[in-house]
Amino acid sequence: MSHTPHVANPDRYSKDIYRRCGRSGLKLPAISLGLWQNFGCSTPMERMRDIILEAFDLGITHYDLANNYGPPPGAAESYFGRILRKYLKPYRDEIIVSTKAGYGMWPGPYGDFGSRKYLLASLDRSLERLGMDYVDIFYHHRPDPETPLEESMSALDQAVRSGKALYAGISNYGPDATREAVRIMKALGTPLLIHQPRYSMFDRTPEQGLLDVIGESGLGSIVFSPLAQGLLTNRYLKGIPEGSRITHSEFLKESQISPTYLERAKALNEIAKGRGQSLAQLALQWVLRDERVTSAVVGASSVGQLRDSVASLDFEPLTADEIAAIEPYAVHGTEKA
């Protein structure tokens, strides 16, 4: 693999794909690259490099990581750090790197959830793997029911004040906990920047109060799994392909490819066809239709898949009539016949 520094596409900022993150001064690309499942020891280094460099050339300036991304946990940060140093080091000031802590990383009582000990130790380990002095955004990845929220938020506050992170965020928090986290962080003097919830046509939980809190609080939001782990693509429209990831994924079940799912996905696919786009592109535009959604995190197993996602930004926004036509099919309950 060549180690020649990358020469970035001079037209990478020719499209205005950036959206302000809540009431902050930071803008994020409408599509961000997530390194959750395709950036580990099972993926060739060359493919990871090509996807990361292509993202930057397309104007995708934000790379979303967490301490446990891989496999194995920690691998995504290590690989991304190597690629950044070898190919994109001159462009560091043009790049937003985020990471998170909140899931299990090492044995014992200090390697999981939300204690001050765990969060700050994890950030130090993340920076070592990344080979960086700071990350742009550091998240608490999930609420900890046994640790006071004040303790977890004070750790985020210290991460920012120490210069190891520029902004603080939370992920997977419900509406009430989000509102309280915002209050605590404001009192500490380090306002929360962003919330990262799961949101898609097939998981509309954030509409049950969370998006209202995000809007009222001036937070940005960046949604993960906008394609519902591939259910909102053309991959399963004719059933389960042989060797498909769904047969061995902990996040998808074969039972989800039900008659109800197929009926809804095919109807949505017809709406997408009417717009001249793919189902995945329609699904991305749908989550971005709400101005409270700053960005959508997409994974990519190939450069082509990444380009298809980014191309969703080339289409006209969904009309009110199109949103209304989507509504009967954009609902929970795809597992049942």
What key phrases describe this protein's structure?
single chain, 337 residues, alpha/beta, TIM Barrel, 8-stranded parallel beta barrel, 10 helices
Structure explained in plain terms:
This protein has 337 residues and is an alpha/beta fold. It has one domain: Alpha-Beta Barrel (TIM Barrel), CATH 3.20.20.100. Helices cover 35% and strands 13% of the residues. It has 10 helices and 10 strands. It has helices at 45-57, 75-88, 116-130, 149-161, 175-188, 210-217, 259-274, 279-287, 303-310, 320-326, and strands at residues 18-20, 27-29, 31-34, 62-64, 96-101, 135-140, 165-171, 192-196, 220-223, 295-298. The strands form 2 sheets. Strands 3-4-5-6-7-8-9-10 form an 8-stranded parallel β-barrel, surrounded by 5 helices. The chain has a two-stranded antiparallel sheet with strand order 1-2. Helix 4 links the parallel strand 6 and strand 7. Helix 1 packs across helix 2, helix 2 (75-88) crosses helix 3 (116-130) and helix 4 packs across helix 5 (175-188). The protein is globular. The model has no long low-confidence stretch (mean pLDDT 93).
